[in-house]
Amino acid sequence: MHAITIEQPGGPEALVWADVPDPVVGDGEVLVEVAASAVNRADVLQRQGFYNPPPGASPHPGLECSGRISSIGPGVSGWSVGDEVCALLAGGGYAQKVAVPAGQLLPVPAGLDLVTAAALPEVVCTVWSNVFMVAGLRPGETLLVHGGSSGIGTMAIQLAKAVGARVAVTAGGKEKLARCAELGADILIDYREQDFVEELRAATDGVGADVILDIMGAKYLTRNVDALAVNGRLAIIGLQGGVKAELNLATLLAKRAAVTATTLRARPLEEKAAIVAAVREHVWPLVEAGRIQPVVHATYPMPEAAEAHRVLESSTHVGKLLLTT
Question: The pTM is what?
Fold first, then answer.
């Protein structure tokens, strides 16, 4: 088969479409003929040499895919050859074939085409596990999403609105904020020109956000805690703003607030399967009803993955970037 390889860490040009061995299907796995994958920030970090796959995972980038099951390994039930699926991966999505643990498979939602389904697994599992399973966002609460126009952000807006929450977002520029508003965002903050702590306080009568979904890490840590409501929960899922910061614990104590930080890729199979099962139960009906829709900015042939990475790093996109085989 062919896959995107990374012989040496570097810029987008390090991504090379090459002939590689087919994956071997193990116990509890299925082989998926990939129709599409999607580009995530973690793929960029892997390309740069900063985020290696966990032990036993495919060396090729790609944390999600869609396609058709072509063979089934021992110990797998509930799936058949020919089923159209999308999947959460620890790696290997940038390829023509990938072996997937059965617990990380999802059926392609009714009404959604096979290629577009590749935009769902990573963002939905990330948002649902952090915003709802960990941070416990409830109807009537306020969620602040940093990077509201990203793949994660566009999904977080829709899911939070679907459960009856109020949504604030930060994004760079009027066009991106307008897209967030179209998806349902209530409070629009241009981080280039406005202070999100002040804007959020003004919009919430000084209360702040009950839950914050953060991709920045160290750069925003102190300000995020300042922006939290009493009993607020800060969920950190990215480190685009650095890894080290000081925090005044007295502020955290006074607000009876919590700070959590999670990754998805390296979690045990059982934890991933539990998240995928929760997504299938709670989110898939919303997708099939048309209340949640993946936002796709552009689609590229998989051999042109380098161009998709350039677009992602330029931050000119809204939503997801897909790669098709």
Answer: 0.96
